[in-house]
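Objective 1.3, modelling of assemblies. Example input:
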Amino acid sequence: MHALFADSFAALGRLDNITLVMVFHPQYLESFLKTQHYLLQMDGPLPLHYRHYIGIMAAARHQCSYLVNLHVNDFLHVGGDPKWLNGLENAPQKLQNLGELNKVLAHRPWLITKEHIEGLLKAEEHSWSLAELVHAVVLLTHYHSLASFTFGCGISPEIHCDGGHTFRPPSVSNYCICDITNGNHNVDEMQVNSAGNVSVSDSFFEVEALMEKMKQLQECRDEEEASQEEMASRFEIEKRESMFVFSPDDEEVTPARDVSRHFEDTSYGYKDFSRHGMHVPTFRVQDYCWEDHGYSLVNRLYPDVGQLIDEKFHIAYNLTYNTMAMHKDVDTSMLRRAIWNYIHCMFGIRYDDYDYGEINQLLDRSFKVYIKTIVCTPEKVTKRMYDSFWRQFKHSEKVHVNLLLIEARMQAELLYALRAITRYMT
Amino acid sequence: MEKMSRVSTALGGNVLTGRTMHCHLDAPANAISVCRDAAQVVVAGRSIFKIYSIEDEQFVEKLNLRVGRKPSLNLSCADVVWHQMDENLLATAATNGVVVTWNLGRPSRNKQDQLFTEHKRTVNKVCFHPAEAHMLLSGSQDGFMKCFDLRRKDSVSTFSGQSESVRDVQFSIRDYFTFASTFENGNVQLWDIRRPDRCERMFTAHNGPVFCCDWHPEDRGWLATGGRDKMVKVWDVTTPRAREVHCVQTIASVARVKWRPECRHHLATCSMMVDHNIYVWDVRRPFVPAAMFEEHRDVTTGIAWRHPHDPSFLLSGSKDSTLCQHLFRDASQPVERANPEGLCYGLFGDLAFAAKESLVASESGRKPYAGDRRHPIFFKRKLDPAEPFAGLASSALSVFETEAGGSCMSWFVDTARRYALAGRPLAELCDHNAKVARELGRNQVAQTWTMLRIIYCSPGLVPSTNLNHSVGKGSSCGLPLINSFNLKEMAPGLGSETRLDRSKGDTRSDTVLLDSSATLITNEDNEETEGSDVPADYLLGDVEGDDEELYLLDPDHTHPEEPEYVLPQEAFPLRHEIVDTPPGPEHLQDKADSPHVSGSEADAVSLAPVDSSFSLISVSHTLYDNRLPPDFFSALVRDMLRFYAEQGDVQMAVSVLIVLGERVRKDIDEQAQEHWYTSYIDLLQRFRLWNVSNEVVKLSTSRAISCLNQASTSLHVNCSHCKRPMSGRGWVCGRCHRCASMCAVCHHVVKGLFVWCQGCSHGGHLQHIMKWLEGSSHCPAGCGHLCEYS
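Predicted structure (tokens):
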């Protein structure tokens, strides 16, 4: 852990709060830092200031002032033109062109078509090369999902940054943080516990019930075999249901002033996969999956990055300590798979070999609300949501869930973007 | 009965006929498999499952196995296999984890036979036992392999790979009980079908998933595997440790691999992504595919040899919804298109050249100079009798050595160092460069610069007296400088290169000079003199006498005896159609250069061209004075730049390009500019003129060039305390946790210019180290190392 911190500090010249939260899972953190370092600092088709600017664009899509501020500093540090920060329209045409992809990718990745790609690659003197585009896409997806993480774990600004030393709500929406980042870990744990105390017996049963369900599913899986139609309809149900799962307080949050300048179109937000009029065919993982197709494409156009991201996905997906709240030696693979597939389901990605009925059994409503909010509209997450799901679970476990969420989201976005690129190429 | 007879003909007489053909499917295919009678093929995919019969001229759809209205996931096939013993039996692997068997002998429309729903995840592969009628093996994403007996309702045994997803399973063709399975984590396992508890052997074959494997049909224990790491490897698993016998590097991840029947070393591959072609490789020749099929427009997903004993028919299915039959004789052979010639410079300007022996042999028969300064050395590779590419296997390697004397390109280095490319007004730049060129004795170049100034700078700023003065001065000092400049020395390096590149008939001329300041050919024997423009040699290679050769270079001078020679003019389009000075001098020089004139005599007449060009200058000057805009000359300037570039003097081309900037850039196409830039930068780097090359990169406006500065900017250094390589994470050493960039002299952290000794890793502020090493030769850190500063 110490070595990780030292590495991170040496690479960035700072130890940001994201690192401090992620260090709950050092194995993942290492891979995460390695990837991020490679994306931002090592050889790549894009110039350094472009990379940070793209990071700013991506984070601004979710009004994540924390990441924006962080990268504004980096951007200026590597010699970026301060004028660009006044808004996307001040940036070069090339980056402006990327705005559309950024928007679609962040909110409705299933709408990406090869026309989007073609538009970027064939724009005369402002056109992107394939390698540059892949680099940009990886950066965009990385920062979209990192914004999710920032909100999901309530990362507060660095102590020396604006807002870091105040007790004002740290980011745009009003939620508190789990404060581990500022060192008073224990205090916070107590706070959370006391908050949840009211229903401590309830939440105790929550865990028990979840474990029971997992056991049941494990056992009866072989016996009860759902018919084909049922399996198919379960996916549809889950998909449809996911759109009703939404935070009750749907009030519009006005984006913070300093961030909004990067928006061209605030009205463009997440729309449910199946709600809006046009029909988008389901994305079948068996036809285009990361391991076989996405990896090969990324590694071809932006060498080594495919490998790094692949490792990161792998670690995130397989990370387990075989514990659940106070229980030890639990096989959590089923739960993890349910979470992963639920997120992909929200993006309209279907696994032929998965029974989507399991999701309903394993994930309760408050958890679904949390997942959905973090993945689709992270800026609306509140402290209440964070507290209200899985009350008995430890913070480290909730961070673990967040890691799963952001990696699943990143993969979903990447899959859509890469599929479009592949279609463009063939 | 009918079926039986067809089978016997196919097997016995080996009378497969057909042609390269394809048919359109309704949906993308995921896998194909051939019936053992080689007359039918089954195609399976997410929404297709059909049997086609292969006729001579076309594919004919015979049966659609997708029956029923509702699409079922059981029919969404990831793989299909046709039993090689029983032609009524098929098995498919479904993406939802179901294994289905099909019996074509069933009377009803629905041929579905049995359904095994034991796998929890997608089944990636199914495989029938080659000899056993009822044994079916499946490998799934959930990490299990299951063996089914088709006479029973469930699996006989389950094999757990104890690792990740199974990507392929294949029964060994030779060993009855053995099968191989490949995994997503790069492992290959060998199992005994009788022992489900653990695998017989496991080895790591690839970095990343192993997508496919295939047992060799004849060589027992040879297993080919293909992976995401773009490799095909051939393993010998008969030895106690699996041994890698061959390795083929492809350009994309390998999705399928199939040994070619009757050809011991051939295998066919297709890729998962990006690349749509099917390649047939000779594993002993791993760099160039033996054959290539380019019919598909999207990735190929399934390949199968039509008959197990016929090497010429290959069937393939693809994501582009076509089914193809490829004939081997129609394949394209990349070898034929390969350029079997290699050319490389040595450290000291030696040149090695390898080519097909036949080519070199015909030429060496004519070489009359044995004791010359170039020494061709010939190596001959011994022929391998098994080698099927006999024609290409023999090659000759010639090595040409340069005469000692490294200063032959000093004009280039000097010019590069002294030219001013930016930062001053155009007129000054031109003047400066002209001066530099003149001082180096390159009069033509100097005049070009002067002219550029006249063309592009406002005439008021250039008093004509000054102009006359500068030109006059140029001409007056031209003679002595040219004489002092040894033209012969620079010839071998450049000259031989051109000759080898362009033609074979050109070897007679001993020295070819490519310097554009004076295209002048001197021959030591003075026997045969030729122009450096090799195309001319091509055009009139049969001309016998010296006079005619001279005539070539001098089309103005009409030869009464041979009026039919109009071709030569085409070889020199730049010289005669324009009133531009650059061609002037050499034109005249060539005229003056009689066949028996010695080199120095040629130099002596070099005053003449200068005069003539001077008159030309005055003409253009007056023209400009009157009313012509600078644009008028852009075509001339463009042709001039092209001329220099073609002469091999990219330095001039690039320098003018940079100095003139926007004025001419739009007239010259991007690619040519880029090409000049890259060649010039390459040359500069060969002469270690790093600063100049960097300046050129910086000043270039072409995007592809200016991004050169951004690539591979990392610097590998050792920590000065522990002497171990820094982990690449900036300025703190990962091992001793100390700041590595301390100045050894003043012991402060260095910010800004830092100089490092490559021997002892100590360093510091540039000025400090320079000062220190003036007084002492030892390292300032006291480590005892004798540091050198250069």
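The two ends of chain B are 90 Å apart (CA to CA).
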